[in-house]
Amino acid sequence: MAHHGGMPRIWLLPAAAALLLVSSCAGGPAPAPPPSTTPTGPSGAALVVKIDNVAAARPQTGLGGADVVYVEPVEGGLTRIAAVYLGKLPSVVGPVRSARETDIDLLGQYGRPTLACSGSAPQLVPLLHKAGLDTGCQSAVPDAYFRDSSRQAPHDLYVHPDKLPKGSGTVTPEPTGTAPPGGTPTTKRHEQVANVGFDFEWSDQKWSISMDNKPLTTTDGGQVAAATVIVERVTTRAGTVPGDVAGNPSPVAVTVGSGQATVLRDGQSFQATWSRSAATDATIFADSAGRAVPAAEGPLWILLEPVA
């Protein structure tokens, strides 16, 4: 599978390294990561596009070119996609929708990326501004966006990424490598994020992705696929925004802390834990023996799956 640009700042480190990282935050000297898991390669600013993925928004455009795709739970049992581009940019991406409070902590690991969005709830405006995540939204760069007359609003807004300002800060590439021993042979996997079902099927050295029992395709490519899929189980909390117009609460996925995870790669599944001590830190994944579970080369999907 082709490798699309650099990889994200998600470090898949052994548990021992995670413990050392936590202790360094408490005031001790910060140790260097083990050489086998030190990220290498180019780094640069990231572009993140908030993409609609309800049925009326499919098929999307430009999604297959993302280096990392996050699936976020939002109000009403729906989900939204945060697509991260670290290398070559598609000419068009969309449909573009609004930012969510989950984005603020989640995207802290990408420096100050450009966030393309249709806007946000008024309560989020100062938070997005403080995080530097408001420079690429429609109100700031209206000429970068256009409406597709063949689509119905609000699923008709698209963006030309090359017309957006560039983000700042650096993105540390994710280490890739050979999977540890102990994986369980897996060719099919079903996961549920809120009320949306995702299916992953291992074939031709990639995970083909379906959503709500239909292949997830794009207008500029075939079925979307990933080299690695990580199911990151997270808690949610009430956010600054009270809810949508129907009164549904707007959940915030908690991505700083720790929890359980499953890593899918090479036709295998690995049970793991994730930990992240601050929004500007990388997420660390390790198996039960404390070994790193590195991603394979290629696109990475991360599902933020709510748990009770």
From TrEMBL:
One family name in Pfam for this protein: DUF3048_C
Chain segments annotated as coiled-coil in the UniProt record: none
Keywords linked to the UniProt accession: Signal
Source species of the chain: Kutzneria buriramensis
Domain DUF3048 stretches: 45-166, 195-302
Start and end residues of each stretch annotated as Disordered: 158-189
Signal peptide start and end residues: 1-26
KW rRNA-binding (keyword) present: no
The protein, known as: DUF3048 family protein
Keyword Kinase: no
InterPro entries: DUF3048_C, DUF3048_N, YerB-like_sf
Biased composition (Low complexity): 169-186
